[in-house]
Fold this protein.
Amino acid sequence: MSVRLAHGIGDAPRTSPVAAVVALGANLGERAETLDAAVTELRALPLTEDVRVSAPIETVAVTLQGEDDDAPRYLNAVATLRTRLAPTALLAALHRIEARHGRVRRERWGDRTLDLDLIAYGDEVIDRDDLVVPHPRAHERDFVLVPWLDVDPDAEIPGRGRVDDLLRDLRGEAT
């Protein structure tokens, strides 16, 4: 990969690594093997280091209509990493990994062989048609917050607060 592509067209080059958070999920096929393979591919990304992954958790599928107990259950995890890839280049790399594992984008929040979401990219707040970080619904999803805390107990979502506080709020627990 060329340095220009690694930084994204129009994005300023990163001279030092940025901490990024990627949520992984799968509810079709060999879920655990797919997540393991995706993590291997994350570790092989250029200009990327220190990939740490949570233990996987199994969760009910969430659709536009809410939880769906009849759909195949998801296996979810979170990876933290340090990268010099621009956020658009990192997102493009995540989409390529999904495609290699049979991801087809037919319906929003549908079943999938692999889902990789860019949850956070350093402290940056990006709101564009092709990229929104922090992920706009991460603070509402225990299947993101729980594994994120497993890998980073001091995690924060820029503009939202500490992940442990967000999880307590989501669960309606007192501090």
User: Anything to note?
Assistant: The chain is about 30% helix and 30% strand. The chain has one domain: 3-135.
